[in-house]
Amino acid sequence: MAHAAGHDINDIALSGALWATGPKDGMPVPPLTLLGEFGAGGMLLTFGMVAALLRAARTDKGDVVDAAIVDGAASVMGFIYGFLANGGWENARAANRLDCGAPFYGVYECSDGKRISLAPLEPQFFALLV
């Protein structure tokens, strides 16, 4: 898809990462451009550039770096896809520990109108919260 037009939202949708974001019964909500362009695409591009520079320094030969946002986003989602394949992830929003499906993982409004984010995933942190 190197010659197809697209933006971050298209790339993370193609990788499957967009499906996991947003309210349970609503449309997916894109995570700004942090996941695709900066996180996933930037990670692959940076790694490719470092590898190409190391090769050039050692061999005096240049290289072509192919860094696709879709590939990076799919790579970042690897652990989720692994959970899904092993029955540890339900393919529905707000049904899992890391997608606000757990009552102790999310953002909550306080009595003063401000908000607090909670994520005590480990037992010792959950015990401290309780």
Structure report:
The chain crosses the membrane at residues 38-57, 64-84. α1 (8-15) crosses α3 and α2 (34-59) packs across α3 (69-76). Helices cover 44% and strands 6% of the residues. A hairpin with a 5-residue loop joins β1 and β2 (115-118). The radius of gyration is 19 Å and the shape is elongated. The protein has a two-stranded antiparallel ribbon. With 130 residues, the chain is mainly α. It folds into two domains: 8-92, no CATH class; 100-130, no CATH class.
Structural class: mainly alpha
Amino- and carboxy-terminal Cα gap:
49 Å
The number of strands is 2
Please describe the biggest sheet, giving its number of strands, its sense, and whether it closes into a barrel.
2 strands, antiparallel
Radius of gyration: 19 Å
Average of the residue pLDDT scores:
88
- The low-pLDDT segments are none
How would you describe the shape?
A: elongated
Order of helices and strands: HHHHEEH
Report the helical percentage: 40-55%
Helix count from the secondary structure assignment: 5
As laid out across the biggest beta sheet, the strand order is 1-2
Number of domains: 2
Strand residue content = 5-15%
GO molecular function, one term: catalytic activity
InterPro entries: CoA-transferase_III, CoA-Trfase_fam_III, CoA-Trfase_III_dom3_sf, CoA-Trfase_III_dom_1_sf
Pfam family, one: CoA_transf_3
Transmembrane segments: 38-57, 64-84
